[in-house]
Amino acid sequence: MTLFSRSRRAMARLPIRPRRMNFKFQGFEQSRYWFDNDPVLTHFMNVLSVTFPDGERFFVDAVRAFRDQVDDPQRQKDISGFIGQEAMHSLEHQAFNDLVAGQGPDQDALVNEALGVARRLLAGARKHLSAERQLAATAGLEHITAILADTILRRADMVEKMDPSVRPLWVWHAIEETEHKAVAFDLYQDVDGDYWRRQRAFFYGTAYLVAFSSYFTWRFLRQEGLHRRPLVLGKGLWKMFGYKGVVSQAIPDWFQYLRPGFHPWQDDNSHLLEKWRATLPEPAVSAAA
């Protein structure tokens, strides 16, 4: 059932350019808890990073499957930009994940276990979901990454709590997730547009992501014996789910996706991008989309 026009288009038109950054992560080995010196926040973000390389390849394939149904040259350019940016995200986060795994044999084993689970989940989605449902899942998960990116870009205090060795990675990723936040959604509206299919995919995608990130964050904390330290856990959980928490601040925007007339650019946060882009090093490679 289509509850609104499939022709709804992005309300902001941003250039979507892939940039290969080749981040060096200098000093990372001295910053085990790189996010606010907090193990809960750090492990949560590390676990999210584990999902990115394979998850974003899934997104790329879901979008590629339908790009031949788009005639508009600008839309084709946007899709090319999306594919290029997601490919760069996979490469940079793989390098980051390798550093996290390199923090010790136990850490390496757990990172690889999490990677294996993520790959099996995505393989199951590729096998059992139709191409339309894979695109719907991509649009929903892209909304989640976009609202987390928006939380980062709106919170200079949050960015400042990230260690300088990794801060540019997360700022760069947030900028690019914002630039292309409507690409998968617009394509889904063009080729399907069924509201209930979109919502089912969104709920399932959210449930799997919450379960995966919660379980492996707990596993990392348990591995270090921190699951027995209630003050450490309580402090970290408050930073995630308390007042202006990393997750709690994004929850109202999560609900926006449920509106029949939703579009990602109804929240136009494009004014944030130039400010943060100016804080980044020059890209190693910058290709026009």
TrEMBL record:
Classification via Pfam families: Metal_hydrol
Keywords on record: Hydrolase, Membrane, Transmembrane, Transmembrane helix
Transmembrane segments: 201-221
Domain of life: Bacteria
Molecular function, one GO term: hydrolase activity
PANTHER family: METAL-DEPENDENT HYDROLASE
Record-given protein name: Metal-dependent hydrolase
